[in-house]
Amino acid sequence: MSSAQIERMQEHLRHLRLHRIGSLLESSLEEAAKHSLSYSDFLDGLLTQEVASKTEKNVAMRTAMARFPFVKTLESFDFAFQPSIDKKKIKELATCRYIANGENVILLGPPGVGKTHLAVALGIKAVTEGYRTCFTQAMPLIASLTRAYAENRIEERLKFYCQAKLLIIDEIGYVPIDRHGAHLFFQLISRRYEKGALILTSNHSFSQWNEIFGDPVIATAILDRILHHSTTINIKGNSYRLKEKVKAGLIREPEIEPS
Ligand code: ADP
Ligand code: MG
Q: The pTM is what?
């Protein structure tokens, strides 16, 4: 094979943006000749490499765009420590079918039981399956909607939060939301209703959401839409953070409440 031909192939590969094949071309040609690979095996091998490289890049890009606070996976979640979680439910959620159907997931439980860990881990599954995902905490989300409203940009902001196929809103209820914020939050929830999936986390049970949103009518309207097509995971257990402190000898065992 002439070097002019190699140069021409490289030019074509650059034009087609098949960069992984470009970097493997010469060594793959040599290998193919040495092992008398069939044409189909040769082409299949190169195309598989290119697809793997493109998938990896897309996942990395979507992960960066999602703005996760950390990267945690389902594989690193210790289900034995949290027996109140139905592992089958989490396995089903890991298929991402709920995203395709525009359904919601609500993770409830006290601090430290793994709500954010699971929300991020499901977000990573979503990103891997090709879904555009956005992670935010409730307070910055409400602040951003309130600011956008004051600056006459609320439409644009609502559209932004509706673009992601999966929107994760962490920590609902840590700080009460004012009436205006609750109205804007309701608008977002209504827009996404049956169209885009949500994962919400909260340390408050649904009966306490009236207090979070300061208005029972709005709280009911929000819950009505969120819960219509949804899976709730109610985590009742000890804080994993405390378990780690016990292990490190920072506190004594009895300080952990029995489950
Ligand atoms: P929450 O959001 O419920 O307050 P987090 O998800 O932030 O709790 O969990 C606190 C810390 O403990 C995180 O570092 C998380 O990765 C870890 N963690 C919580 N539960 C588990 C678990 N069952 N297995 C492994 N790590 C866990
Ligand atoms: Mg959390």
A: 0.88
